[in-house]
């Protein structure tokens, strides 16, 4: 398939994990990708692997200036900006009574404000391109209660609501906005789990396995592409049934 020929997609937090896999798949289908991340060494190595169709820039999603630079880099690649994956996120699990205000606000800044700034930043460029698709990476922690995750959950539930609000606001510009809700996915993010925590999570997954980056990336590419042209404001769980 070559669903992304002539299209450019911006992926925040794409130096590794799910975002890096999405970048590889989009380029394999003829697209161009701008990757933003704090992880400069990994981001540069990925861009070198992917060649001229990929640009990496250091980006902190909490900063408006970094978003402006990322959008400018996407338009410089040529052909306009057609997609955004608001993928950058942090997950520092702590129960309610062990979560201090600084940790709570750090999650808000990266996971929630970062997504808000990203959506705002891409709209003029997507409008110039004639429309586009925004995919906000939430979590099953945005669909149901999640243990030890008061701060993370608050942001992932927020993304679900922000997705629907933005979908209405941006429909007249032919910009679609949808959310993806991964269950446990094998990346660095969950490497902090103890063996006990991991096996407790495994027991709760109807399909009986932790997800892969490919599982999520396939769903994200579907929402970015014209295959989902009549979908906006939708929430897509990619979670082995864990949220059922
Ligand atoms: N792995 C899972 O089990 C899981 C489950 C549900 C949802 N998610 C979500 O999927 C997304 C991708 O996570 P992942 O699993 O690939 O983990 P990951 O930790 O490999 O990727 C997250 C990326 O975000 C980047 N990042 C963090 N703060 C940033 C900032 N301020 N500015 C720019 N980049 C920043 C990190 O450097 C990292 O590259 C996240 O939003 C995460 O919350 C992950």
Mean pLDDT score: 97
Number of domains: 1
Oligomer: single chain
> Radius of gyration, Cα only, in angstroms?
17 Å
Please count the beta strands (DSSP E, at least 2 residues each): 7
Could you tell me which ligands this complex binds, including any ions or cofactors? Answer: nicotinamide-adenine-dinucleotide
Q: Assign a percent range to the helix content.
A: 40-55%
Element-by-element helix/strand order? EHEHEHEHEHEHHE
Strand percentage lies at: 15-25%
CATH homologous superfamily descriptor: NAD(P)-binding Rossmann-like Domain
CATH class, named Alpha Beta
Structural class category: alpha/beta
Shape category: globular
Descriptive key words:
alpha/beta; single chain; 244 residues; 7 helices; binds nicotinamide-adenine-dinucleotide; Rossmann fold
Characterization of this structure:
By secondary structure, this protein is an alpha/beta fold. The chain has a single domain (8-238), classed as NAD(P)-binding Rossmann-like Domain (Rossmann fold, 3-Layer(aba) Sandwich). It is 44% helix and 16% strand. The chain contains 7 helices and 7 strands, in the order βαβαβαβαβαβααβ. The protein has helices at 17-28, 40-50, 64-77, 101-128, 150-170, 195-203, 213-224; strands at 8-12, 32-37, 54-58, 83-86, 132-137, 175-182, 235-238. The protein has a 7-stranded parallel sheet with strand order 3-2-1-4-5-6-7, with helices on both faces. Helix 4 (101-128) links the parallel strand 4 (83-86) and strand 5 (132-137). The longest helix is centred in the middle third of the chain and has 28 residues, at 101-128. It is globular, with a radius of gyration of 17 Å. The relative contact order is 0.14. The model has no long low-confidence stretch (mean pLDDT 97). The site of nicotinamide-adenine-dinucleotide (NAD) has 30 residues, from helix 1 and strand 2.
């Amino acid at each position: 398939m070559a669903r992304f020929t002539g299209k450019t997609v911006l992926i925040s937090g794409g130096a590794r994990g799910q975002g890096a896999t999405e970048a590889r798949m989009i380029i394999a289908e003829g697209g161009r990708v701008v990757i933003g991340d704090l992880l400069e060494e990994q981001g540069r190595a990925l861009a070198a692997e992917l060649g001229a169709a990929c640009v990496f820039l250091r980006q902190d999603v909490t900063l408006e200036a970094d978003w402006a630079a990322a959008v400018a880099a996407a338009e410089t690649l040529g052909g306009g900006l057609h997609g955004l994956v608001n993928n950058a996120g942090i997950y520092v699990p702590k129960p309610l009574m062990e979560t201090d205000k600084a940790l709570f606000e750090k999650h808000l800044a990266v996971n929630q404000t970062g997504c808000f700034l990203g959506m705002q930043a891409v709209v003029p460029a997507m409008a110039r391109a004639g429309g586009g698709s925004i995919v906000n990476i939430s979590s099953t922690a945005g669909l149901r209660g999640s243990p030890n995750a008061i701060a993370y959950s608050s942001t992932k539930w927020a993304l679900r609501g922000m997705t629907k609000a933005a979908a209405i606001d941006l429909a007249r510009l032919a910009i679609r906005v949808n959310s993806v809700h991964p269950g446990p996915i094998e990346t660095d993010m969950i490497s902090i789990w103890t063996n006990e925590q991991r096996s407790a999570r495994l027991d709760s997954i109807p399909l009986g396995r932790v997800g892969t980056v490919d599982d999520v990336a396939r769903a994200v590419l579907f929402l970015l592409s014209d295959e989902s042209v009549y979908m906006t404001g939708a929430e897509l769980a990619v979670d082995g049934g864990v949220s059922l």
